[in-house]
Design brief:
Length: 96
């Protein structure tokens, strides 16, 4: 009277074997998924290790390239300011 009902089913041996094979395949699939995740993590770690030396070698070159671009930008800004002052200056002289 516990409220639990049980039903017994009779299966043929072939069906039991088929179900066990399916269970094994499912478990193998889970194992493969875990192995694939481990391989993926290992691949990422190897990639990061390979990139790390290049990252440490690149900054001096990147810094010099950045300084070059900054200098060019500063020069363009100064040229634009001069052009703007030259374009505005005649108008200011006439308005006084």
């Amino acid at each position: 009277m516990s409220g639990e009902k049980r039903r017994y089913v009779r299966l043929e041996n072939q069906e039991v074997q088929r179900l066990r094979q399916l269970e094994q395949q499912l478990r193998a699939g889970i194992d493969i998924t875990a192995q694939l995740r481990a391989l993926q993590q290992q691949g990422w770690q190897q990639l990061q290790q390979r990139l790390l030396p290049s990252r440490t070698q690149e900054p001096p070159r990147l810094v010099s390239q950045l300084r070059h671009w900054e200098l060019q930008a500063q020069q363009r800004l100064e040229q634009q300011q001069q052009q703007w002052q030259q374009a505005i200056a005649p108008g200011w002289a006439n308005s006084s």
